[in-house]
Amino acid sequence: MLLPALAPERAREIVARTSGVHILVVGDAMVDKFIVGRVTRISPEAPVPVVAFHHDMYRIGGAANVASNVVALGGQATLVAVTGRDEAAATLTQACREAGIAPSFVGDGDRPTTTKTRVVTDRNQQVARIDYESDAEIGGEIEDRIIADIHKHAARASAIIVSDYMKGCVTKRVMQVLVGTAAERAIPVLVDPKIPHLDYYRGTTIVTPNHHEAEAATHRRVRSEDEARDAARIFRERAGCRDVLMTRGDQGIWLLSNGLEGHLPAAAREVADVTGAGDTVIATLAVALGSGATLGEAARLANEAAGIVVGKFGPATTSTMELIAAVTAAQAGVT
Questions:
Q1: CATH-assigned architecture of domain 8-30+62-108+137-334
Q2: Residue ranges covered by each domain of the chain
Q3: Which residues are catalytic?
Q4: Cα–Cα distance between 238 and 154 in angstroms, integer?
Q5: How far, in Å, CA of 254 to CA of 1, rounded?
Q6: Secondary structure of residue 50 in the 3-state scheme
Q7: Per-residue pLDDT reduced to its tens digit, 275-333
Q8: Tens of pLDDT along 204-235?
Q9: Is the dihedral of CA 208, 213, 214, 218 positive or negative?
């Protein structure tokens, strides 16, 4: 079943309210570094390309990219995360502030700030990636400080997003605190999951697996709409969440909620890079719900937002203007 259509007038009404929405983002923030150059030959030392350096650039990734998407949509975002006590932490903090995000970072001297360094050509072809990271879960004083920051910032949140990349910030205790705090304030908790943490997410509002994660969690193949429906139902039971929004790449999304179940075809017209599309989906869902959208309306907006960002290079965002234009174009196509 196709999810209900969203009229452009209703979309404008929803996005007009985003400035009053505050989203608390908790999870694994990271720095994406790109070393860009030109490849003209193969190394005589080994069968690898030689990249002549041209420039480098930094972008915020992981939970920070989720928060950036919130701000791009007009909302306010506070980001609670763990960093190292290193130069990358300073880079991440500065970049977040420049993006309009309020960073609330806990420095841990025993780990590096998660940094993914990609060597790419001037034609956006990736040559290699180097990861600086620790996936050990936080504990002790570091975990206590993260929880204290959650209590502090949840007081004015319209919704909470958990961006779990399994880099240590999202522990079972952190999740229990998030679920309990959200229940006290009657606000939703949305989770971009990692399957080994599936039992952490019990009691959350919406979990947004991609179809590969859904397959891993349910041991079911997801190729058709019927298979997506069955996998979403099993996933919901195993995760113990209320709703499931499954992203299916070029097959669109599948939404499972009480009283609403169905799919939307992919909205992308041209695909340049799928990096961070899941970040855009969950950010758009949270901002839309905080702005008074129904879950079906929020799913429509999230699907259109994902279609926009996959046409851009690297972790990207979309604006409310782009989103309204996409909804308007989609509605014209329907009618």
A1: 3-Layer(aba) Sandwich (3.40)
A2: 8-30+62-108+137-334
A3: 279
A4: 27
A5: 10
A6: strand
A7: 668 899 999 999 999 999 999 999 999 999 988 987 776 667 888 889 898 888 877 76
A8: 999 999 999 999 999 999 999 999 999 999 99
A9: negative
